[in-house]
Amino acid sequence: MQAGSSKKIPGFLFSGMRKIKEYLIEKSLLLSAFITILTTIGIILVLTVEAVNFFSEVSLISFFTDTEWTPLFEQKHFGILPLLTGTLLTTFIAIFVALPIGLSIAIYLNEYAPKGFRKTIKPALELLAAIPTVVYGFFALMVVTPFLQQIYPDLAGFNALSAGIVMGIMIIPFISSLSEDALFAVPKSLREASYGMGSTRLQTAMLVTVPAASSGIVVSIILAISRAVGETMIVAIAAGQQPRLTFDPTVPIETITAYIVQVSLGDVQHGTLEYRTIFAAGITLFALTFLLNNISFFLRKKYRQKYE
Amino acid sequence: MNNRRKNRIADKAFQVWGIACTFIGLVLLVIFIGDILIDGLGRLSWDFITALPSRRPESAGIWTAMMGTAWVLVFTTIISFPLGVAAGIYLEEYAKKSHLANLLEINISNLAGVPSIIYGLLGLEIFVRVMNLGPSVLAGSLTLSLLILPIVIVATRESIKAVPGSIKEASFALGATKWQTIRNQVLPASFGGILTGVILALSRAIGETAPLIVIGALAYVPFAPKSPMDEFSVLPIQIFNWVSRPQQGFITNAAAAIIILLLITLVMNGIAVYFRNRWQKKMKW
What we know:
By secondary structure, chain A is mainly alpha-helical. Chain A has 13 helices and no strands. In chain A, 45% of the residues are buried.
């Protein structure tokens, strides 16, 4: 290899050049990896700088205690609570739908289903998470809300209920896939011991495998919550644009993410207080998901090698 | 005896429930897509695809949005593919067990959990304002590239990890340097997997709406972009815009545009699966 070039260049020089080349390649690869660090720094910096500007004009106390959020009106109020309750409400509904279904799927696939079925159904379920969220928004507004209105005529055209339900359907695979992995990791011996005692499959699942895999299941739930909190298009389309402090799922509300979209669609000038509100909302959202992600990261690390 | 029968019945009942749960999501998906097809299929035509946006739903089309999506797709690929693969190679082959590697790893898994709309805020400040790119194709592509970088990196690492150590050792034994080994052995052997991951990541980028709205991509752009510095719209934003209008005609348009968007997503996922299967067949260690 490369005998030609080594003839013209003295041996020590050639190997030196090769070392330099290897060194440069390694450093440029490192530089690419470093972009991810820069991204994190960039996110934190951007959010903090604009949020600090925001909080120089609006006090932290009123931000967290004011019960109204009306930055775009004459009478301005900057209380994050209505957006926060909107976010929590849709998230709660989504988890309420996705958790029982997702966990049942995980148990069924792990304890009952034949192996081949499991292999084909898992990618099919993951298709649910591959569909663009704007499409889910359309479903929520055009299919689910009219359907629910037939059952409950007082339901508003925009509401947290349909948005939450559809979001729940979207995050089923997050819970089912990760929980199934956790159940699968439970050692065979535990399960066989349970069968040996005469337990049914359901008893084995409920009393042995699910408790044994509980940390992995909790991780899957936290990640699903984090995903639901940050979900934007479904709520922007189907849940409305009316920030209000309520846990009533039948009226229009607004989430943190939907508010950011609402402002971005209008023409709010850079540097104004209205412009900064989206960063104040953004840093709240970021803090929330950062916390959730790190709890799940911590749990995963702590319980990873329990059975090895 | 009675207790045992109760347990048996509960066991059977859960089996039925489990099957119902497994299929309910998919059944709903079929219902949704069926509804979309009924709403939108009649509206699909060559005219609909090639028409410019319009105030009147009957004459509005998706040409500018589709071209915007194509531009963004090309530039996001150009930016995220080399960066993500390079970072993945570094983490898997060079950065074993150092503090820096640990930090990078935690950071990447954290980035993967950041909501996409936050990337929009980052792009708005850094690319649109500080770098003064405006709400252009380039700013949008840079934003989406950062968004999918963690996915590309993880996919690259998984594929490289699957290459057996014996191949690398054989290459080193023949006198190859580390980079020669990676370039001539590791990358060719893992390329199918990397490609699959990149395509899946790009198909996610195609469906993203929120970060592009935040950086200022418009719902109404009169012409298709001609350069990376032009303003743009993309299919999901066009759909969002049409869904939020009251006229039935625009809802029908939205359904028709969704059919196109789902088709693109489906084709990309199909290509990814094809590459994965072909690569798995070829690479039997």
